[in-house]
Design brief:
The complex is a heterodimer of chains A (344) and B (212). With 344 residues, chain A is α+β, with helices and mostly antiparallel strands. Chain A is built from 12 helices and 10 strands. An 8-stranded antiparallel β-sheet of chain A has the order 2-3-4-5-1-8-10-9. A two-stranded antiparallel ribbon of chain A has the order 6-7. Chain A is globular, with a radius of gyration of 21 Å. The C terminus of chain B is likely disordered. In chain B, strand 1 and strand 2 form a beta hairpin. By secondary structure, chain B is mainly α. In chain B, 44% of the residues lie in helices and 7% in strands. In chain B, strands 1-2 form a two-stranded antiparallel ribbon. Classes of the chains: A alpha+beta (344), B mainly alpha (212). The interface between A and B is large, with 87 and 70 residues. Bound molecules: zinc ion (2 copies). The site of one zinc ion has 8 residues of chain B, from helix 1.
């Protein structure tokens, strides 16, 4: 099931879990150093090996897509923005429900991504690992007994595994604890980032935690460490909620209802404002203050209102004011639907 | 309402404190809230901070610990891609998988600083001892015996395009030779093998036109 159309385990606080495995082929230089001829040949070999697995992939030719369609792939977390900036040929193989996406020709030749709603790290890893095993048994992989899977960056060598969990932390955000959180988790080998990735500020109170370490720790140990950190964050957030919201129910209810009010009536809305209001609405869902609405619905709205996805569904480029208008339309309709669901 | 602590920013955080059985509410901006040590977090931060510090590449490359590293690895370069050790230190990226061998003498130092350990402890590479048979290297010449005219479909597809083309043209040559010596049985086998290869090449292409 496509992660952003659903909600998973611990779905009230955790939006999604993501796994990325990096693999490279022997006998070719890493990503950016490939010649166009090497790049094209490499892509064909990987496509061939994936086809041979009998799995059904959509072979997406990125160069044929409009900039809006490309951006929409980034917004749906199916490709990294870096893939679009590679000087060498790149490709994308997409599993039919978008839960598996294989990026070809990024910094590493092969990056297998697996996405799940909620906190679902181990199943997400197993799905990605199954694909990795097929590729490993079909192609000559850059691997050594000593260092494991060899990658372009020494921060990925070993398992080549990057696991991320996207969490909704409104109370910790409001209490200004995210920076302290980020500082301290980096000492444990985990990175904290905002919704839009690497250098972004926290938007919509969404925070992504992922591992930095890939060598000297096995896959399952790493996943269990990350799982424990996430559990701790959940506990912290729940305690922080008592502090930030619990003592003053009417203030929280006011916040949630204001969000519903603005989302339900605005005619123009930026994606920044919308994400912040959706965060308030999600808080309402989590606290049982917003009947008729669900975390899954908010997950899906978050993707629908992003610039690339908006333009993709419009089928043409849209200027910012036009996007703000369409975004407001989508949100008004969703709020109206939620209200009538609550009424019945 | 303004923040009680700095009196400047809008208060956005309302913190309930219970001290000596007395409840009080503090109205703070998030800047001030982050500076205060709020009780439930204090323990966690201390616990987390007790663990060994690790750095990212950027901070590592410019750190005093690394000052001698370029000198220690002077003269090292990768024979395959030509990347020098100094260049590697600057960019933080290897050029190819052979770089790992070329810089091996320095890697324990580097990896020890940015990773949990310096040796791999993950699962083994798949396809070595596992039941899945890895594809043999592409055959250089067509075998004489009729049984081996077909490559396993998966192995054929894993070949680079020009290797696939070379294999098909080898089959064509064999077919012509067979016809020349009137070995029609072998010629037919060759023809069928060519057809299967062409079908394999054509088959997945049908699904490629769909846009996401
Ligand atoms: Zn203040
Ligand atoms: Zn090299």
């Amino acid at each position: 099931m496509t992660w952003y159309l659903t909600s998973g385990p611990e779905g009230d606080l955790i939006v999604s879990s993501r796994i990325r495995l990096a693999r490279n082929l022997k006998d070719y230089p890493f990503g950016a150093r490939l010649t166009p001829e090497q790049g094209t040949e490499l892509l064909e070999r990987i496509r061939g090996a994936c086809r041979a697995s009998g799995d059904d992939y959509l072979d997406v030719h990125l160069e044929d897509l409009s900039p809006q369609e490309q951006l929409s792939l980034v917004e749906r977390r199916l490709i990294s923005p870096e893939l679009l900036e590679q000087p060498n040929p790149v490709g994308l193989l997409l599993g039919r429900d978008e839960s598996i996406a294989i990026m070809l020709g990024e910094e590493d030749h092969i990056r297998i991504q697996s996405m799940r709603a909620g906190l679902d790290l181990v199943p997400a890893w197993e799905a990605a690992d199954a694909v990795a095993r097929i590729i490993e048994s079909r192609l000559p992989i850059a691997w050594s007994e000593r260092y494991g899977f060899l990658t372009a960056c020494p921060t990925n060598v070993g398992t080549g595994l990057r696991a991320s969990v996207m969490m909704h932390l409104p109370a910790l955000t409001r209490l200004g604890q995210i920076e302290a959180l980020s500082r301290n988790l980096s000492k444990l080998g985990f990175t904290v980032r905002g919704y839009h990735g690497e250098h972004s500020r926290t938007q919509g109170c969404l925070v992504q935690i992922s591992n930095q370490l890939t060598l000297g720790i096995g896959e399952r140990d790493l996943l269990s460490d990350l799982g424990q950190i996430v559990e701790q964050m959940l506990q912290l957030e729940r305690r922080a909620r008592e502090q930030a919201f619990g003592s003053d129910d009417i203030r929280t209810a006011d916040r949630v209802q204001r969000a519903i009010g603005i989302l339900g009536h605005a005619r123009l809305i930026t994606s920044e404002e919308a994400l912040d209001l959706l965060s308030d609405l999600r808080l309402g869902v989590e606290l049982g203050l917003a009947p008729g609405f669900s975390a899954a619905q908010i997950n899906s709205l978050m993707i629908q209102i992003e610039p690339g996805t908006l333009q993709k569904s419009a089928g043409r480029p849209l200027e910012a004011p036009e996007r703000d208008c369409r975004r407001a339309d989508i949100l008004r309709n969703a709020i109206a639907a939620g209200r009538s669901a609550a009424a019945t | 309402m303004n923040c009680e602590r700095c009196q400047r920013n809008e208060a956005s955080v309302f913190i309930t404190q219970i001290e000596n059985g007395k409840r009080s509410v503090m109205h703070l901006c998030s800047d001030c809230a982050s500076k205060l040590t709020i009780s439930p977090f204090k323990a966690l931060w201390q616990q987390l901070a007790a663990n060994a510090p690790l750095g990212l590449w950027k901070s590592l490359a410019t750190s005093p610990q690394m000052q001698g590293e370029a000198a220690a690895g002077a003269g090292l370069a990768c024979p395959d891609c030509g990347l020098s050790y100094a260049e590697f230190l600057r960019s933080g990226k290897f050029g190819c998988s052979t770089c790992y061998k070329a810089f091996e003498s320095r890697l324990d130092t580097i990896l020890g600083r940015i990773q949990r350990g310096t040796r791999y402890v993950g699962r083994p590479l798949a396809g070595r001892q596992s039941t899945a048979t890895p594809c043999p290297p592409p055959p250089a010449a067509l075998p004489d015996t009729s049984e081996t005219l077909d490559l396993e479909p998966a192995c054929f597809l894993s070949l680079a395009p020009e290797q696939q083309t070379a294999w098909i043209s080898a089959l064509r040559d064999a077919q012509n030779e067979a016809v020349a010596i009137e070995d029609y049985e072998r010629a037919a086998r060759c023809r069928d093998a060519i057809r299967r290869c062409l079908a394999l090449q054509a088959e997945p292409a049908a699904g490629e036109e769909v846009s996401p």
